[in-house]
Design a protein that fits this description.
With 476 residues, the protein is of the alpha+beta class. The chain contains 14 helices and eleven strands. The strands form two sheets. Strands 2, 3, 4, 5, 8 and 9 form a six-stranded mixed β-sheet that branches. It has a five-stranded antiparallel β-sheet with strand order 1-11-10-6-7, covered by helices on one side.
Length: 476
């Protein structure tokens, strides 16, 4: 028989192993690709299942002697090293897959077992490289595998243990798969001990059943996570609509004033808040507030500010009193969070403005008459600071003249804190520069220009770094 005929004959004898190995390898590659793309809760289990399946499949493909005959010489030389490495380290990968299904103290046991299996595996590989013996430490490796399989089978099979240690929506599929795999492992080991030949496909079928059950469980976890994320997204969208509903619906039309407001949350909901308190065609109050932190907790406090503002409208012409009363209302509700706020009152009839703040960035005041830009600071303490450690709980008020051509800027620190690639903040200097260079633009156009400058300042790959609120008031 010529060599080619011998290879074909060998391949025919090993066709089942080649087919099963190819299928396991294909499944492993697909699972790893899915895990790499999704990167969400539950995908680590899919990743380890993919690696486990791929390793098992490669072992099956590299086992037939006919495959050796058709491979280049350099690959034939490397096959024993690959096979030995996989034989020792496949247990580590399997344990990492088991780990993803467990919670509680059993994870400590699994981590300890993983470290022991890794140490044995690395030592076994080293022994093979030095001596050429590929099974010197395999009895120890098999002992760890047997103990791990027994522990996992017990956790899966005993309802009390599974409720305590498994994170599974449904364990019904995993129980038979684990028991079948365990029985197959016992059968294979008994066959070796009693010196009779086990069925060639028994280990392959046992692993296939276990892999199917694990994959089903992984999909359950992923789908449960997806449903949870969809529910969260839906709730966040509702929260976003609710939050925007607490903001002013319209810009008030006040004689001799033009007002523009910009509001850009960093996430679905934000901790920034602004409010207009118009009285008539000549008088109005303007509040801007910034809650520490981001997301839902900050948004809830911002909603509380909206409610609290209804209690202070009688004092809207007194900025210091507005802030003092707001602070008193919120002090018992903040729960270790803080709020900065700024309040501006403008009366065009008397051509006067009054300003006060609570730990907030300064008011920018552009004087149209002489083209100067002033930073008005009149800060009291942040809302949420324990009044026992604050000597002065008052909020000082600054009186400002108002004339046609003047412009006021109320904003939160999301304007000045964004950093560029070099780690430099946008800062007050850059803010003032943009204001000076665009002094002739109307309030709405200046607001859009300033936000564009802030976006351009940040590195392109990064998303918005903080909530942004800006109110621009022009005096006509």
């Amino acid at each position: 028989m010529n060599p080619d005929s011998q290879v074909v004959a060998l391949l025919r004898g090993e066709i089942a192993g080649i087919i099963s190995g190819t299928m396991f390898l294909f499944f492993g590659v697909i699972a790893c690709a899915i895990a790499a793309v999704r990167r969400r809760s539950g995908v680590r289990l899919i990743l380890w299942l993919g690696v486990w399946s791929a390793m098992y499949g490669l072992q099956e493909l590299l086992r037939p002697s006919a495959v050796d005959a058709v491979l280049p010489h350099w690959m034939q030389v490397s096959i024993p090293y690959v096979h030995t490495t996989f034989s020792y380290l496949v247990l580590v990968v399997a344990l990492l897959a088991f780990l993803e299904l467990n919670v509680g103290k059993i994870r400590l046991f699994l981590w300890g077992t993983i470290l022991v299996a890794l140490a044995i595996g690395l030592a076994g590989i080293a022994v093979f490289i030095v001596t050429g013996s590929d099974d010197k430490l395999m009895p120890e490796n098999n002992l760890v595998a047997a103990c791990s399989l027994f522990a996992f089978a017990a956790v899966v099979s005993v309802p009390r243990l599974s409720r305590k240690f498994l994170v599974l929506p449904n364990r019904a599929v995993l129980v038979p798969g684990t028991l079948i795999f365990a029985l197959q492992a016992v059968y294979t080991n008994l066959a070796g001990t009693l010196h009779y030949r086990a069925l060639n496909m028994s280990s392959t079928l046992g692993f296939a059943v276990l892999l199917f059950c694990f994959s089903y469980v992984a999909l359950q976890i992923v789908f449960a996570s997806e449903r949870r994320l969809l529910a969260i997204d839906k709730e966040l969208e509702i929260a976003r609509r609710l939050q925007f509903s607490i903001l002013p619906e319209n810009i008030p039309e006040i004689e001799n004033m033009r007002i523009a407001a910009a509001y850009q949350p960093m996430t679905a909901v934000a901790g920034d808040f602004y409010e207009f308190l118009p009285v008539d065609q000549h008088r109005a109050g303007f509040l801007v507030a910034d809650v520490s932190g981001h997301g839902v907790p900050a948004a809830l406090i911002a909603s509380m500010i909206k409610v609290a503002m209804q209690s202070v409208t009688a004092w809207r012409h007194e900025p210091g009193e507005v802030l003092r009363r707001l602070g008193a209302i919120l002090s018992g509700q903040l729960r270790d969070q803080y709020v900065s706020a700024a309040y501006l009152w403008i009366d065009t009839a008397t051509r006067r403005a009054r300003y006060s703040a609570a730990g907030h960035p300064p008011l920018l005041y552009w004087r149209g008459a002489d083209g100067t830009l002033a930073r008005i600071e009149s800060n009291g303490v942040l809302f949420g600071v324990d009044p026992k450690i604050v000597r002065d709980g008052d909020y000082p008020v600054r009186d400002l003249p108002v004339a046609p051509g003047d412009r006021f800027f109320l904003y939160t620190d999301g304007i000045v804190e964004p950093e560029n690639v070099a780690g430099e903040s946008f800062g007050d200097h850059k803010l003032e520069q943009v204001v000076r260079e665009n002094q002739s633009r109307p309030a709405a156009e200046l607001s859009e220009r300033l936000l564009a400058e802030v976006r351009a300042w940040q590195p392109a790959p990064l998303s918005q770094q903080d909530d942004i609120t800006l109110v621009v008031i022009d005096m006509l």
